[in-house]
Amino acid sequence: MAILECKDLTKYYDRTLGLDHLSLQLEPGRIVGLLGPNGSGKTTLLKIANGLLTPSSGQLLIDGKAPGPDTRRLVSYLPERTYLSDWMTVVQLLDFFCDFYPDFDREAAEHMLTALEISPTQRIKQMSKGTREKVQLILVMSRRTRLYLLDEPIGGVDPATRDYIIHTILTNFHPDSTLLISTHLIADVERILDDVVFISRGQLVLHQSVDQIRQERGCSVDDLFREVFRYAE
Ligand SMILES: Nc1ncnc2c1ncn2[C@@H]1O[C@H](COP(=O)(O)OP(=O)(O)OP(=O)(O)O)[C@@H](O)[C@H]1O
What we know:
alpha/beta, Rossmann fold, six-stranded mixed β-sheet, 9 helices, globular
């Protein structure tokens, strides 16, 4: 069964169309890039999957169930904007995640924090934007869940840290889990992707494996994206 399935998923914000009859299935064990120009509906899709927005019509199912209390334990979500209370220290956040999520692997999180030289006593509000992003991603990736939804996880971090984070995602990733990652930094992440989903104006444009793109089209995902979404000159 698909871990995430959209059937004719449509979302209106008043009169603005966020998603337009999007149908999609993600299979277990895949790392999937959710790619599209600004305003194409990526965040809207991830918010619906996490139960933060409800569809206007159509359905989104997580392991066959509508997002809600039953699906929360299956999904680890990194939102677009930080949601961490900024007075908290790293240790307090680790305690919080341990209490809140029985699947949280504290040891793995501590290991990554040490590797990135993030002090356990530092408060969120004292951190740079990039460090805050790193902490948040570490917390989200240290849960042992079936579906990870990451909305722009590496936008604010430097290239060396990006490499470390991408490596971390891979080493922490259980082969039966699924990861859906929305990003504009395609060249940085494409080597870890199994599949890509291109969306534009809320509609599905392409859902294909990266191997197929390379073999059949003879180009990288980054090249294909630039070609598909090129503006007329
Ligand atoms: N709260 C909102 N109210 C009204 N319109 C919204 C709202 N949130 C998103 N939209 C609209 O829905 C569409 C999809 O937006 P969404 O944020 O999902 O795109 P995105 O692909 O994540 O964009 P980006 O790459 O810029 O982050 C856009 O036209 C956007 O303007």
